[in-house]
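I hope you will forgive my troubling you with a question about protein structure. I set the record out below, with my sincere thanks for your time.
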Amino acid sequence: MLPQEIIKAKRDGQALAAADIASFMTALADGSLSEGQAAAFAMAVWFNGMDRDETVALTLAMRDSGDVMAWPDLDRPVADKHSTGGVGDNVSLMLAPIVAACGAAVPMISGRGLGHTGGTLDKLESIPGYDILPSAARFQAIVREVGCAIIGQTGEIAPADKRLYAIRDVTATVDSVPLITASILSKKLSAGLGSLIMDVKVGNGAFMQTIDEARTLARSIVDVAGGAGVRTSALITDMNQPLADCAGNALEVASAMEFLDGGKAGTRLERIVMTFAAHMLVNSGICASLADAEVLAHEARASGAALDLFGRMVRALGGPSDFSTNWKKHLPVAPVVRPILAEQDGHIAAYTTREVGLAVIALGGGRLHPDDAIDHRSGFDAILPIGTKVARGEPIAFVHAADEASAERCARRYVSTVTISEEAPPVSPVILETVS
C-alpha cells in the first residue's frame, strides 16, 4: 500500500495491517518517506489511536528497522528502566550504575528532551567528551566490561523510531499512548532486555495528566512488552512538582553525582531511585524480595561502588577519566546565577510543573526545533519541595542563565509557576500505583 493510503486509512479510523505498518516504518527508516508524511501519520495516530495488535506491530516494525542485540554469553541478567518524562527527572543517571553495581547488566538507550521534559542524552552531553552515539559493538563491549552504558539511538538502533521521535517533538504528537509505547519499547527491545521497569509519570508536569491516562499507558506498555517476552512492570509516579531539586542539564548531572556520593537522603528523588532499583533487581532475578533488593541498592551507593561505576562508564564513553571524583571541574557553569525570592510568607503549596520545564527551555536548556543547540549550563536549582515553609525575601530557587536579561526574565517566569499559601498543603506520595 502507498504511504498516503496508509495515512488515509488511519486518518479515517481504520485498523492498519501489520504488513502495512512494517512497510511504512521501513520507508521512514530508509528516508524514502517525507517528513510531512511522517508528521501526518503521527497526527492520524494521535487522533484515532491504535489497538493492541497495531501497537505490537508498530513496536516490532520500529525495532526491526535496525539492529537487535543479543547477549548469549553474558553471565548477568539484562535489565533496564524507562521514564515517560518529567521535569527534574534525572533518575536514570543514578539508577543505571546502582543496579549494575548490584550485578545486572544495564544497556540503557535513552532519548533527548520531548516537549517540556528534559532528556537523559541532553544531560549527558553536559559531560565533556561523552559519546552518546557509539557503535552498537562498542556499546555492547562497554556494557560487558563496565556493567552499564547510557547512550542514544545510533543509526543502527531503531532508526524508524529515531526519525519519528524528532518529528513528534515539534508536531504536538508526543502524548499518544500507541506512539509512546512503540517508541519506548522499540528501543528497549532492540537492546535485548530480559526485564524492564517503567516509570509512568502523572500530573501537571507529565504527558499523562490524570491517573486514568497513566494507567492506560502503563497497561499498554506492560501488555505489549510482555507479549514480546520481556518481563515488565510499571510504577505510576507523581509529577506535580519537579522530582529533583533542580531542572536543567548540567545541574541535573551535578545532582546525580551528589546523590551517588551519598547526598539527597530522605528526598522524593531517593525514594524513587531506590524503589526502582529494587524492582529491577527483583524482576531480573538477582533478589527474591523488594526489601532485600533495596538493602542491596543502598549498599551499592554507600560503598561508593555505584559512583565508581558511573565514572568508569563516563571514561569508557570518552569523558574525563576523573569525572567521578572531580565532576565539579568538568561540568559547565552559567555566568549568571541569581536567587529567586519568595514574594510572601507561607508554604510552597503547588507548582505548575510543565511551566518550570518551559522556563528551562526559555533559558536555552531545551529545544523548540530538532536542530536547536542547547545551553547545558542553564536551568534552576535549589528548588524547594511542596510543603516547605518560606519567608518573604528568602530564596525559593536559583536561576542559572547566560546573561542578566535572561536571568531576570526567567526568574519572573519561575515565580509565576509557584503557589505559596498560608496553610501547609497535604503532601502526596511520590509512588502512586504498581501495574504488573
Remarks:
- The first strand starts at residue 79 and ends at 83.
- The chain has a mean pLDDT of 94.
